[in-house]
Write a structure and sequence with these properties.
The complex is a heterodimer of chains A (100) and B (168).
Chain A: E1 14-19, E2 22-26, E3 31-35, H1 36-49, H2 52-60, E4 64-69, E5 74-79, H3 80-99
Antiparallel strand pairs in A: 1-2, 2-3, 4-5
Helix pairs in contact in A: 1-3
Chain B: H1 4-8, H2 13-42, H3 46-72, H4 92-119, H5 123-152, H6 158-163
Helix pairs in contact in B: 2-3, 2-4, 4-5
The structure holds fe (ii) ion (2 copies).
């Protein structure tokens, strides 16, 4: 499994495609397997959290978010820079479909 | 569209987001027509109440059409929350005018999605939306004809006007 070789050194969250309908969210401390519907749900949540008003309210409050992923099997912790990077990562992942 | 994501989903993700917003818009329209139906029902405006009960049902059907379309194509349809439904109206005519405004807003929204689908080469959504475009042109026409009746019968008792209006 290629996913085992991933060393996450930069404290960010990454998406990896493993097999036909298996994906992985690589976090600083664990690897979370995701199905495609779970990927779509993650995308929806991240997009909702990164609107201008949502970001403002995060900054005004705790300055981080806790997020359930993979049908609530995992809880992840994201600070603003991580959140924004993951948003780009997911956008790029779904962008492939259009560019090809 | 022949990469990883394409294998799981046959519509464009950004277009899917717009379709999900459209589901919310149709459900909101449904709730709004239900409020109008109630106003008419309480005032014994029989044709108008039948008309708006029917509209409320139809809008829900539109929402469901889009809902199953998204899921059938591998996407994730989102059940929307419907808030801020207005239940307070000043007149029957104002109700139909609000209805027309609502329909025009829906038409414009459908056009936007249609354009986005075209731009993203999402042919499946483009073809799917064609039905909605014809439907919207019929809906707008229905409301405009009703408002014409109000113009023609100006000054007549409300119940008499109602009797001349279509039930659906
Ligand atoms: Fe509709
Ligand atoms: Fe309609």
């Amino acid at each position: 499994m290629p996913v085992k070789n991933v060393v996450n050194t930069n404290n960010s969250y990454q998406i990896q495609h493993i097999t036909f309908c298996k994906y992985a969210l690589i976090t600083p401390n664990k690897i979370i397997n995701l199905s495609f519907p779970q990927m779509l749900e993650l995308r929806r949540k991240i997009n909702a959290l990164t609107t201008y008003s949502a970001l403002n309210s995060i900054i005004d409050n705790e300055n981080f978010v806790l997020l359930f992923v993979a049908d609530k099997q995992h809880l992840i912790f994201l600070e603003i820079p991580q959140l924004l990077k993951l948003k780009d990562e997911i956008a790029a992942f779904f962008q492939e479909a259009v560019l090809a | 569209m022949n990469t990883i994501v394409r294998k799981q989903m046959s519509i464009n993700t950004d277009v899917m987001d717009m379709l999900n917003n459209q589901i919310a818009m149709e459900m909101k329209a449904s709730a709004s027509y239900l409020a109008m139906a109630s106003w008419c029902d309480q005032r014994e405006l029989l044709n108008s109440k039948a008309f708006f009960y029917k509209q409320a049902e139809e809008e829900r059907e539109h929402a469901m059409k889009i809902f199953t379309f998204i899921n059938d194509n591998g996407g994730a349809a989102i059940s929307p929350s419907v808030t801020n439904v207005n239940n307070d109206f000043e007149s029957l005519r104002a109700i139909y005018e609000t209805g027309l405004e609502q329909e025009i807003a829906v038409t414009e929204s459908i056009f936007k999605i249609f354009k986005a689908a075209r731009k993203a080469d999402d042919f499946i959504t483009e073809v799917f939306l064609q039905w909605f475009i014809s439907e919207q042109s019929e809906e707008e026409d229905t409301f405009r004809s009703i408002i014409d009746v109000f113009d023609l019968m100006e000054g007549m008792p409300l119940k008499m006007i109602d009797e001349r209006l279509p039930k659906e």
